[in-house]
Specification:
With about 70 residues, the protein is an alpha/beta fold. The chain has 2 helices and 3 strands; from the N terminus they run αββαβ.
Length: about 70
């Protein structure tokens, strides 16, 4: 995301982030279901903001029909 921000993009919408552990669908998938993620998201946000860019986290609940790992 930093490369996009550095390149002049004004707004970044992240890939989806799961909101519950049981709806994690991909290995390495971003999550937002636990406070342990706060430090890393803060770092990401600060980096993107340092390039005068904004970022939106796309929270996603996969639902009952999603195929799990």
């Amino acid at each position: 995301y930093e490369d996009l921000a550095r390149g002049g993009v004004g707004l970044i919408i992240t890939g989806t982030a799961y909101v519950t552990e049981d709806t994690k669908t991909l290995s390495g998938h971003m999550g937002i279901n636990n406070d342990r993620f706060i430090k890393d998201y803060k770092k990401l946000t600060d980096i993107v903001h340092s390039h005068d860019c904004r970022i939106i986290l796309q929270a996603n609940y996969a639902g009952k029909d999603e195929q799990m790992l």
